[in-house]
Amino acid sequence: MNPIDELRAARPAHLGDQPVDERTRAAELTRAMAAPRQSRQSRRTRRVVRPVWSLGLAGAAAATAAAVVITSNGAQPVTPRTTPATSALATTQATVRLSARDVLLAAAGSAESRPEGRGAYWHTTSVSRNLYVAEKGGYRIMDVGRSEMWTPRATGGETWSRGQSLGAHPVTDEDRAAWEQAGSPSEITVAAKMIGGTKRFVVPMAEGKVRTEHAPLLDGDKVFWLGRNITMKDLRRLPADPARLKKWLEAAYDGHGTESADEEMSADVWLFKVGVGLVTDMPVTPEVRGAAFRMLAGLDGVRVTENVTDSEGRRGTAVSVTEDVPGPAVLEDRLVFDVATGRALARENVVVKPGGLQAGLEPGTVWNSTALLDAGWTDANFKG
Amino acid sequence: MTDDAHRFTGMYDECRQRVWAYVVSRAGRQVADEVVSETFAIAWRRLDDVPEPALPWLLGVARNVLRDNIRAEVRREALAAELRAWTEGDVADEVTQRIGVLRALAALHEDDREILVLVAWHGLSPKEGARVVGCSSAAFRVRLHRARKRLKEAMEAAEPALPPIPAVRNLSEEWS
């Protein structure tokens, strides 16, 4: 007998074609599809993607959003919402009669006068949180992850990232009691009815390992995605005039959303998302950061909420848009920032009308957030 | 579901266990799920680059993930445990010859074992196998030829560690 044939016949049974168990399948598919796809149309200009550290079904849900519309209430103050009973989840919101425009212009002034440092790498540290409802037991858990990024100023370098899941925990004492009642499972299955079926995945409660990744810059020089992939040089040379900046950004808008070519998105929502991305954690000059705030102030449907507390407990002001997403649900995408410095504190998603992945969460709940702990130029790379 | 998600899910269902089995044969079971998960995360991001059939491409990605993320000593230890499990199966349920082949395979160098497993267990052609390990088809054929020879030698050299299992006697005969 041919040794290859003998070897074929000797394959251990567990290495054969047994089906994968359903939990593993759901978790792996969800984890994979949580990251943005590199668009089919722009194969040659793949999108610069940042690593996703938490499992992020949230991201998957956002990425498959089929339709996003903007509420056209102009710069009117936000409608007061029901305050959830569980205040641990909710931010304190007090709407004031100051126009969105005035607040953003104040932030623009602050941002412009904030000096930037120097260094070989742009370094950011952030903590992401995702709120989930356990499929069995209905209690809520908060999944937390920490991530750091180093982006080189010079072309030809590598981006470095370091991330770790900090584990999940029941949100309130009530949730903890329900989790214990369920036998204190170390892995929680969460599910969401979405268009295209129920999505399920498993959230481990324990802290994960620290993972470091590095990769050459896309095409050797692309560092961020701003509607298109851009180099550090592009980013540093963005127009510092709000109208010209808007025009520059809008050139990359083609009617669909920021995460998927399958969703439609209005130009103003798109500009909001791209513009907020820019002011949140990209190394633009103070003048461009100011211009971006001024541009946001000119968009339709952008609202401002004062006295918001971010997921790290910091006080700030929120600028937001509201979106209809599959589920169906209505969600608010907001940037929490400090008006006095023009500094971004957190990007958050708030439940306005529960549904889909957010079914079982009360209106006003922040179900997903990324808090920026630190952003600045440094000469130390990941080893430093 | 979008077309991309549909295609990806189909590819996952078709290839996931094959990728897992390949990783297990390279690095044992402990790290396999982690490596497989990362491999498919990469496949999703780079879906436009994934050819048909996808398996050789996926195995190549898994191979790189393994090399870049799992420390060599962790891999060696985990693999040693896996190889022991292959050859220490419940003898009563195993066929002697099968154990002998697996022992011979376990005794080979890692590179030989990889080539043989790709061809015998995953059904890859030399061209596909060459893609996975990153060499030319011609070089792969040469390596396969040598690995096959060494497997045969290892099988012949191995002492018949276990006596041949006698054929099951017909009980009715015995009792009659």
UniProtKB/TrEMBL annotation, chain A:
Keyword Membrane: yes
InterPro entries in alphabetical order: CU044_5270-like
Keyword field contains Transmembrane helix: yes
Transmembrane segments: 48-70
Record keywords: Membrane, Transmembrane, Transmembrane helix
Protein name: CU044_5270 family protein
UniProt source species: Nonomuraea maritima
NCBIfam families per the UniProt record, alphabetical: CU044_5270_fam (NF038083)
Automatic annotation (TrEMBL), chain B:
UniProt KW keywords: DNA-binding, Sigma factor, Transcription, Transcription regulation
GO MF assignments: DNA binding; sigma factor activity
Keyword Transport attributed: no
Domain RNA polymerase sigma-70 region positions: 11-75
Classification via SUPFAM superfamilies: Sigma2 domain of RNA polymerase sigma factors (SSF88946), Sigma3 and sigma4 domains of RNA polymerase sigma factors (SSF88659)
RNA polymerase sigma factor 70 region 4 type domain segment(s): 101-151
BP term (GO), one: DNA-templated transcription initiation
Segments forming a coiled coil: none
NCBIfam families (alphabetical): sigma70-ECF
Family per record: Belongs to the sigma-70 factor family. ECF subfamily.
Protein name: RNA polymerase sigma-70 factor, ECF subfamily
Organism placement in taxonomy: Bacteria, Bacillati, Actinomycetota, Actinomycetes, Streptosporangiales
